[in-house]
Amino acid sequence: MRRLKGAAEITAGLSAMYFIYSIQIIVFSLLYPLIEGRKEILALLPVMNDLRGDIFGSTGARMNTSLNIGEVRASSSSLVRLEAKPVSALTLLMSTTIIIVTFSYSLTLGERFNFGVMMLIGLIATLIATVILLPYTAFIVSEFFRRGWDPGNVMPSLVTGAGDLITLPTLVLAFFIVAHGIPSPAYPILALLLVSLSISIFIASILSGGSRTKRILKERTLVLAAIIVLQPIAGISMATFEEELAGRGLIHLVVAFIGVNGALASVAGVRLSVFLHLYGYRGVRGALTSISFDVLASAIPASLLVALVGYAFLPPGASFEVGLPGFLVTVMLATMAAVVLGLTISFSIALGAFKLNLDPDNVAIPLITTVMDVLGILVLYVASSIIAAI
Prior knowledge:
The protein is mainly alpha-helical. Helices cover 86% and strands 0% of the residues.
């Protein structure tokens, strides 16, 4: 009964996340005419999506652990106060770094973005999103914990989905603030000031923060390098396989597919992190079995939901010739393969981090979501190729 409850909680969280992704599609359609041709914004969209999930997925995991070990009481305000300093410092530093890296990648591809505009839009959007997502994450974790649900089963889905949903609106709002509220000659100066401010806040947080804040900031900076290296691969993979996935009627599922599978893998990481904090390695094999059962059981209805909605809204020109049964098999096969890989990666990263005396909440979740973005696209492409060839 307990296992079924866990699987039901994960499924509920994933179902809510897919609903959020459906809204995201509508929002994107409405806002796109406002930013059409603004490559600075479009280039920031995928990396900012991933960054929101990385930072606030890890934040929610720490909140969940803090509640389970009795470090803080179950209220939104208490959790916000607990995480405000490390989240603010990390968000500004990581956003600044990822914007610089994205700009550098654009130069290698021959694009000519306005660096000042790109930095201002990215950091202003980051500040707006943080003000929204930090209390939202605290509310989700505290409310589900108080109601007897395991926040680790639902938090990754709801936080990741919400982060993806608000990324584009905050970028558009930041664009209008920059375009209509700031004189263009001031762009470079303000961009440099914001970069300096981000670095200063991060350093000040390490110097003035308590042991918990210092540990979070130091461990999370270790993850930054991996994110910078891995995340662009997801975009390259999507671009490489775009024609094949579009022809098979799957291109519109990519964001939802990698989001759902990333959330499933994150659920496994969050659950294992809590167990390791409470019990260490004692009984860990049983925990791995229980977590795997819950996640695999939840993947079945989640994949059906993604497949049915995806088939109902096939884009024009899609030529997936095997019909609904083949479409369902493709998505479900890809989902199960991605989940098995995700469980393996999630457990390995969480256990490895704990063995190295690093907090899995700070290290595991960001790496898991980033790796799953890359693997999810590859797995979906391979699965569709296999089914199409039969």
